[in-house]
Specification:
It is a single chain. The protein is α+β, with helices and mostly antiparallel strands and about 290 residues long. The chain has one domain. Helix content is about 30%, strand content about 25%. Strands 2-3-4-5-1-6-9-8-7 form a nine-stranded antiparallel β-sheet, with helices on one face. A hairpin with a 5-residue loop joins strand 8 and strand 9.
């Protein structure tokens, strides 16, 4: 895809905006062909340690691909199910900032940066600012790959952008039973009054993201699940993830897909939630 085609997706000044969006976490992730081993991860932390002083280990995230050809999908599933190794999977490493709002995650085939609310009082970081954070830390990662002579085998195969929202009703109203007041798409009326209002609801959607020629670039995944916070407040967790291959082999291809994903996620969030909630979140523009 040409730079001109990429730039057509990069305009998001007119996207819906809110003074108090319910976003509690944003994630930018790059997946690549398996490359790193445990020695690399230890060395890599020293590149970030002055700004991300806390280190934790987590189970690895399984590879995820958006596949549109049926035969390729069947082949991928078969290979995933029957992969056998006598070496245990390499752990995922967390490098955590002192205030815990930002963290970097690295495993043998992923580089991820997260922004998240910890106390609940943190100011939401806008996408342009968050992407600048990603780019700065990704540059450090790339410098490390060059230092370790790994760049020749570094092949990005998927990009992923995620927004996690914790949504509750205003004025202390019960959230779980008011699904249809929060989300604009759902809960049709049942003609026969046998069933009461649902106690809670759970929804999953997948949408194809197409380029200007109608070819698939990736998918938008939307999940809405009833959850309970630590203070026992009922919420709906709305997770929106765009995943697909980079638009080209350069950093511009990664940037281009992230920008597309951002546009899709913001527009989907706005379309799938009600005007009442938009007022509650203090929508700025229409």
């Amino acid at each position: 895809m040409s730079a001109e085609a990429i730039s057509q997706w990069n305009e998001f000044e007119d996207l819906p905006r809110y003074e108090n969006p319910p976003v509690i976490e944003t994630v930018l992730s790059v997946q690549f062909d398996p490359l790193l081993d445990s020695s690399h991860l230890g060395l890599l932390w020293h590149k970030y340690r002055d700004r991300f002083p806390t280190f934790e280990e987590k189970p690895p995230i399984k590879p995820a691909f958006e596949i549109f050809d049926r035969k390729e999908m069947i082949k991928f599933r078969q290979e995933s199910e029957f992969t056998i190794s006598d070496i245990p999977p390499l752990r995922r490493c967390w490098f955590i900032q002192e205030d815990k709002t930002r963290l970097i995650q690295v495993q043998n085939d992923r580089f991820i940066i997260n922004w998240r609310k910890v106390t609940g009082n943190e100011t939401y970081i806008s996408y342009p600012n968050f992407f600048q954070d990603f780019q700065a830390e990704y540059d450090v990662f790339n410098s490390f790959l060059k230092q370790e002579h790994l760049t020749e085998n570094f092949i990005v195969n998927q990009c992923e952008i995620t927004y996690v929202n914790h949504i509750h009703m205003p004025d202390g109203q019960d959230t779980h039973s008011n699904f249809n007041k929060i989300f604009s798409y759902f809960i049709p009326k049942i003609n026969r009054p046998i069933l009461p209002v649902p106690e809670n609801s759970e929804i999953k959607f997948r949408y194809r993201i197409l380029d200007k020629d109608g070819s698939p670039l990736g998918r938008l995944h939307v999940t809405i699940e009833p959850k309970m916070k630590k203070d026992e407040t009922n919420i709906y967790e709305m997770n929106l993830t765009c995943r697909g291959g980079p638009l080209n082999e350069n950093i511009d291809g990664i940037t281009g897909f992230f920008n597309i994903g951002h546009v899709w996620i913001v527009n989907a969030f706005d379309a799938l939630t009600t005007k009442m909630m938009h007022e509650f979140w203090e929508k700025i523009n229409d």
